[in-house]
Amino acid sequence: MRKYIVKRVLISVVILFFVAFIIYALMRCLPTSYIESVARQRSMAPGSKSYEEWLAQLSAQYNMDKGIITGFFGWFWTFLKGDFGDSWKWTVPVIEKFNDVIWISFIMGAVSFFFELIIAIPLGVVAATHQNTRLDYSISVVALAGISFPTFFFASLLKLVFSVKLGWFDLYGLVGRNYNQLDTWGQILDKAHHLVLPIVTLVVISFGSLMRYTRTNMLEVLNADYIRTARAKGLSERKVIYHHAFRNTLIPIVTIVGGSLPGLFSGALITETLFGINGIGFVSYQSMVGGDIPFSMFYMVFLAVLTLLGNLLADILYAVVDPRVRIA
Amino acid sequence: MSDEKKKTSVNDSDNPEVKAAAGETNDQYSLNDDRRVKVLSPGALVAKRFFRNRLAVTGLSVLIFMFIFSFLGGLVSPYGQKEIFYRNDVVDKEYASVVVNEEFRYMANDPSFSGLVQAKSYLAFTKGEESFVYNGVTYTVEKDADDLFAVLTNGSVIGFGYKDIVNIEADDIPENDFDFIYGALKAMVGEEKEFTALDRTFTVNGEGEVLEDGKQVAYISRFIVKSVFQDVTISKRFKEELEEALETNDKDFFFTEDDGVEYEYTITYDAYRKSYSVRQGKESQVIDKYSPPSKDHWLGTDGNGMDMLTRLMYGGRVSLIIGFIVVFIESFIGVIFGGISGYFGGWVDNLIMRVVDIFYCIPSTPLLIILGAMMDAYNVDPKIRMLYLMLILGFLGWPGVARLVRGQILSLREQEFMTATEAGGIRVSRRIFRHLIPNVIPQLIVTMTMGLGGTIITEATLSFLGLGVRFPFASWGNIINDVNNTFVLTTYLFIWIPAGVCLLATVLAFNLVGDGLRDAFDPKMKR
After folding, report:
1. How far apart are alpha carbons B431 and B417 in whole angstroms?
2. In chain B, which residues have their Cβ closer than 8 Å to the Cβ of A269?
3. What is the reported pLDDT for B25?
4. Contact criterion met (CB < 8 Å) for A164 and B490
5. Residues of A in Cβ contact (< 8 Å) with B370
6. Which residues of B touch A (CB under 8 A)?
């Protein structure tokens, strides 16, 4: 087991290395005039260094002055040491900005993930046990509709109904107008109030795939021989489904749920942007559109790490949860 | 399906005689006669299972509708994708100003009634003095009314101060005829309503009209109408009607010019400047922005004055074409790499799968956003941009297909028919592409159908963010982009709701069809 984990971690590191290389190469493909224009812009600022100095500093920061391979190694090394540079757009160290915004994204992700679980798994089980009935069809259509909804369209509809027509929520932002006058509890409630629509959006958009996954696996389990045995024993249908079938369905579900845990940190780029919530997604969107290379690179590598971590976690959990899986 | 006898021989299935016989004359054949049962090819079986799925059929019909709407709609629609519409709009323009005369004006009959004498006479008039002396000459001030006085020397009127303006209409009365004007003003305020000037007799009625033999030759009023344009002279008729409107306190009135064109005028009073300003409503052509649905534009027009329905059709075309090309690129690369990887195994498999892992790890949304912003910076032509978009999306999407194909092939290659191909000495490439890949096709079709929906959403999202398909090309995503403007979100529902519904319907339909296909392809599925 330990050997397996070590091997997987090593492979992940290698993959991360290559992904980082691709990201770096992509950044190098940006027009060189781009760095020049940033340098020019900065040298215009009152009391700033001269254009040449800025150009040299910015180039040196990303090893633009060296070849692409040596440049990459240099950059990757500083990156591994935890030096992510200063954000151009936010004019603070990248890590500081990241710390500022990551937690709201995480809260949003975690809450919506929780709701996703408690909606998707029961629905999936119900759909599977009532396979090919009207109930199954309606659940499937709702789940598919959720998957098919473009985030921005659904969010716009929510805004139209709940913000504009009913006036229950603000259109944008994380805090209300009188946020500063509120006490601590009021501030927390205010934020929670502003997070309702984004979380609803996230849940509706993403619960479908988990529900379908649950349904498929449940169906598979229900067709297994041991379920027939359980029924033949004369167990109640309730016991068959929730005791024998559901527990076995949990194996793939736990795997996939565990695998998506790191993803809670990745932020919801579109949703945050639409609702103007300063989470990691919105901030990186602004950085990317604004050509903030340090922040964008950091975010992309961060996402790659999260994906790798998710895969790793899923694989390990799979081996841990399912006693039938033996790893050589 | 299990209770039905499945036969996969193709030779009989096309024979209409057999089919007809199957239904009607069952008992003529012995029990184990093949003709007793309807014979279906595997394809027909799949189709049958597919069409039994009502959801999938609904999805298919939606798709067919969307295809007709997008690809034929553009041909049927009378408008072009980039056609801009105009409408005539009334724009108010400052036309004239009207001042109520509150100051004395003077008119002289004699050069001695100069500016200083005028001032002195005014002083005397306000003090109520009957005469004053200036430069040794004695002038008499004769008060006719609060706003009219005459100045006399030696018994003859040399000038007068007045507030009401006499507007002369008749051609045969000179513009500044002293006697006429003084006579008219005096008649207006005095008891005697008749006066004589130019050897003619005129009467003034209570409304300030000066009549000669019952015909109006002039009128008296306190309004001064001035045009704001240098080159426009205001006709007497306009002045009259305007004054009428002013007296009745109308806010707006209509006036028909001599050439028969009617304009609407609005009158506003500026209390500070003590003047009225008259604005002429002039029709001018403006871009028909956000006009609500009408007979000409069934879904109204968008922010650029383009027909929404037509944009929707062309947008659907773009979205669908992009979806298909991207999925095609994905599948093409994916099948090749997946096939090679699955078939050869070993280090080739390892290498390709690690590459797949790497591609899986590249965060695609940020990458697309950065590339979009980069293309913005380079000002890439919208057409070429679309091409790049397809290439990038396709190139980012292939690892999924490769994984699927590889997985399938790994299990397929261990089966007997593959051993047979090997024993038969068939070329490797032929073995992969003629024997293995066709067996993967069902799964591939399902994935591609589902992938189409996903790709359309991705493209729409990018276009929505303004980083995908750009103006002047329409795409369902960039049509909805308008909701970023809160006013559009709240007011112009006809702009973004139809595009969103199209998008949702299409993607949902693709997913339903994909789902139905999966069920239909999977013989284990019992219905």
Report:
1. 10
2. 365-366, 369
3. 54
4. yes
5. 26, 288, 296
6. 55, 354, 357-358, 360-363, 365-367, 369-370, 373-374, 377-378, 453, 457, 460-461, 464-465, 467, 477, 480, 483, 486, 489-490, 493, 496, 500, 503-504, 507-508, 510-512, 515, 527
Whether A94 contacts A86, CB under 8 Å:
yes
Is pLDDT at A288 greater than 70 in this prediction?
A: yes
Lowest mean pLDDT: which of A6-15, A223-232, B66-75, B125-134? B125-134
Tokens of A23: 């990201």
Work out how many CB contacts closer than 8 A connect A with B.
Answer: 115
Asked if A160 and B524 touch (Cβ cutoff 8 Å), the reply is no
Q: Which of B367, B377, B503 sits opposite A150 (nearest CB)?
A: B503
Please name which of A314, A304, A178 lies closest in space to residue A252, comparing C-alpha atoms.
A314
Q: Which tokens is B16 given?
A: 């209409």
**How confident is the model over B439-454, as pLDDT tens digits?**
888 888 888 998 899 8
> What is the percent of chain B with per-residue pLDDT over 90, rounded to a whole number?
9
> What is the distance in angstroms between the Cα of B52 and the nearest Cα belonging to chain A?
12
3-state secondary structure of A230: helix
Walk me through the domains of chain B, giving residue ranges and CATH numbers: 50-85+298-521 (1.10.3720.10), 97-286 (no CATH)
Residue B496: name the closest of B278, B303, B225 by CA: B303
Tokens for A172?
A: 């944008």
Using a cut of 0.80, tell me whether the model's pTM lies above it.
no
Higher pLDDT, B81 or A206: A206
The beta-carbon neighbor of A153 closest among B361, B503, B527 is: B503
**Residue in the structure block whose two tokens are 């079709």:** B445
CATH topology of domain A102-321: MetI-like fold (1.10.3720)
Helices (H), B68-130: 73-76, 115-127
Q: Does A159 touch chain B (CB under 8 A)?
A: yes
* Nearest to B309, CA basis, from B497, B58, B63: B497
Chain A nearest CA to B436, separation (Å): 26
Stretch among A55-59, A249-253, B378-382, B444-448 having the lowest mean pLDDT: A55-59
* ipTM given for this complex: 0.86
Cα angle at A233 between A230 and A238, to 5 degrees? 55
Report yes or no: A140 at the B interface, CB cutoff 8 Å.
yes
> Do the chains contact at B493 and A34, CB–CB below 8 Å?
no
- pLDDT at residue A123, rounded to an integer: 92
pLDDT confidence tier of residue A33, bands split at 50, 70 and 90: low
Q: Where are the domains of chain A?
A: 2-80, 102-321
User: What residues of chain A, 40 to 79, have a C-beta less than 8 Å from chain B?
Assistant: none
